[in-house]
Amino acid sequence: MKKYIVLATLTCMGWVMLAQPPQFAMRPFSQGLSWAYPTTDSVYGQPQFVQYLRFGPKEYSFDLAWVTDTLVRTSDLAWSADATAAINGGFFDMKRGGSVTYLRADNKDIHQTTERLIQQGNEILEGAIVITKPGQLKIRSGKRIERKKRYSDVLVTGPLLLRKGKIQPLDNRDFNNDRHPRSCLCTDNRNRVYFITIDGRHTRAKGMSLVEVIQLVQDLGCWDAINLDGGGSTTLFLRNQGVINHPSDNRNFDAQGERPCANALLAIPRESIP
């Protein structure tokens, strides 16, 4: 499938800024953690509800939570691990459970990428989230990462959106071009980590194309950014607040439509780690 970069407006000259960048109010939640929620109901000319959690690298550590042959809600994975926050992770088998992309945890291979995705050359295999000791989160290329065994925790997902500040090309396909609820992860040049959700499939939240997501993470000052599973899976959890976005599986604009998933990314205060 031919690679291309979808343009934000009708131009053949390259990327241009989209109108109406997001506006956020920033609420300090705890030391090293801020919760940003929207102050307008329109982003890039469409009704949207976008929010993010931003974590300081000194105050928070990161981990993967996963199940192999079933599905569990992101919020339940977070509660089980006593995590402060969580966001849904990578792509999974909705019937049998378990990740469909490479997942490594605690230096053990848990899941291998399915042959179907390998044969497709699917671009969700082009990125990876890695967690190094002691719990530092990095975004890397997914190519050959299954062979390296360098990291104790790895989740292959994608597409990659930004790499070292550079926009990554996208395939010309509906998954990228259409507006959907989205979950994504990014880091900035201060090594802060962002859990970002974009609600969708509702008149109050249209969702975004991946081109719009790229513009969003650029507007937030991200350096590396990667797409996670989205759609009905999109979930953002914060302890003592519960699910703080509007998961779309019940088609209502509330916190009750959470879809069970196979894995999630967790944020844990470093002071609570033995």
Provide a concise account of the structure shown.
The chain has 274 residues and is mainly β. The chain is built from 5 helices and 24 strands. A hairpin with a 2-residue loop joins strand 10 and strand 11.
How many individual helices?
5
Can you write the helix and strand succession as a string?
A: EEEEEEEEHEEEHEEHEEEEHEEHEEEEE
Helix content: 10-25%
Content of β-strand: 35-45%
The pLDDT mean sits at 91
- Give me the secondary-structure category: mainly beta
Characteristics:
274 residues, mainly beta, 8-stranded antiparallel sheet, 5-stranded antiparallel sheet, 24 strands, globular, disordered N terminus
Give structural notes.
This protein has 274 residues and is mainly beta. The protein has a domain at 35-92 and 165-272. It has five helices and 24 strands. The protein has helices spanning 74-80, 115-120, 145-148, 174-177, 210-219; strands at 3-4, 24-30, 33-38, 42-43, 46-47, 50-55, 60-66, 72-73, 85-88, 103-105, 108-111, 127-132, 136-141, 153-157, 160-163, 166-167, 170-171, 182-188, 193-198, 222-227, 236-238, 242-243, 260-261, 263-269. The strands form six sheets. The chain has an eight-stranded antiparallel beta sheet with strand order 2-3-6-19-18-20-15-16, covered by helices on one side. The termini are far apart. The relative contact order is 0.22.
Fold blueprint:
Layout: E1 3-4, E2 24-30, E3 33-38, E4 42-43, E5 46-47, E6 50-55, E7 60-66, E8 72-73, H1 74-80, E9 85-88, E10 103-105, E11 108-111, H2 115-120, E12 127-132, E13 136-141, H3 145-148, E14 153-157, E15 160-163, E16 166-167, E17 170-171, H4 174-177, E18 182-188, E19 193-198, H5 210-219, E20 222-227, E21 236-238, E22 242-243, E23 260-261, E24 263-269
Antiparallel strand pairs: 1-17, 2-3, 3-6, 4-5, 6-19, 7-24, 8-23, 9-21, 9-24, 10-11, 10-14, 12-13, 12-14, 15-16, 15-20, 18-19, 18-20, 21-22
